[in-house]
Amino acid sequence: MAHEAFVQLSCPECSKNWESTPSELPAHDENFSCPECHATRRMALFTRTDRDLENLKRLQ
């Protein structure tokens, strides 16, 4: 049984931090809205670190 990796996320507007699996997220270049404050940005801007962005791209 494979375990899916988690990507660490952080909202650039309200600073909410959370994690999600890449399969639950849009592609890094698509729009995404923060579940807390509903700010909309490119998905890549919500990844907390460069490594999280790399993982998002690699695992989708």
From TrEMBL:
UniProt-listed InterPro entries: DUF7836
Stretches assigned to the DUF7836 domain: 3-60
Name of the protein this chain belongs to: DUF7836 domain-containing protein
Domain of life: Archaea
